[in-house]
Amino acid sequence: MKSLKRSHFFYFLFIFVLTFSSLGAFQAIPEVICVLQVNPIRANVNDPIQIDISGSKNTFTVEINVFDSAGKRIRQKIVEFENAVWHTSFSTPGDYVIKARAFNLVGTQSLNECEAVVHI
Fold first, then answer.
1. Which of 60, 78, 87, 93 is most deeply buried (CB count within 10 A of its CB)?
2. Which DSSP symbol is given to 83?
């Protein structure tokens, strides 16, 4: 009697998994691809810089970090994909490195490097 209940349980579990897999409930999560565009690359002090991540694929949020020439992080911004453009400016001359990391809805990070250098 005990083995009969156990076999019924596995039978119903098998039917459950088969039903949901045929409906597409268990699909692989697509890879997150980060695409970063910065315009302009060369600018004057206090000129607006546009940071655009709208070309990213399978993305929910993007974390953008700005580093100065010494490697110190000076700004950080988390951008929702719906608001894919961030406008900023720099008040001191030098080279700035902009790095971005894209995340999907589950929190998986993009594997590709998103980096740009801006000269002020």
1. 60
2. G
Phi-psi region for residue 116, left (φ > 0), alpha (ψ -120 to 50) or beta?
Answer: beta
| 40 upstream amide cis, omega within 30 of 0 | yes
Short-list 65, 62, 64, CA closest to 104:
62
Angstrom CA distances, 73 to 3, 29, 97, stand at 62, 31, 9
State pTM to two decimals: 0.72
| β-strands 61-67, 95-103 pairing | antiparallel
